[in-house]
Amino acid sequence: MTPEDLGWRPYVKSWIPRTFPEDDVLDEGLKTYLWETFEFAIDMGIEKIRESLIEPIGTVDI
After folding, report:
1. What's the confidence (pLDDT) of residue 61?
2. Which of 20, 49, 59, 60 is most buried, judging by how many CB atoms fall within 10 Å of its CB?
3. Which region, left, alpha or beta, applies to residue 30 given φ > 0 means left and ψ of -120 to 50 means alpha?
4. Where are the domains of the chain?
């Protein structure tokens, strides 16, 4: 399985706990909120970029 097949979710799922370890800046509720914000916005943002904008350097959806 390639990174393109997995998409961006595994990266963010592992990034949140590494960046904000236990009892650090964000409690579990805020970590959940952060994840939900990514879930809400990223796919929609990527779709908007692909439909409406020109990328000078092509990217993949990871």
Report:
1. 73
2. 20
3. alpha
4. 3-52
Rounded Cα–Cα distance for residues 9 and 44 (Å): 14
Tokens matching residue 8: 């961006």
DSSP state of 50: H
- Per-residue three-class SS string for 1-47: CCHHHHCCHHHHHHHHHHHCCCCCCCCHHHHHHHHHHHHHHHHHHHH
User: φ and ψ at 25, to 5 degrees?
Assistant: -70, -40
* Contact in structure between 7 and 61 (CB atoms under 8 Å): yes
Number of other residues whose CB lies within 10 A of the CB of residue 60: 10
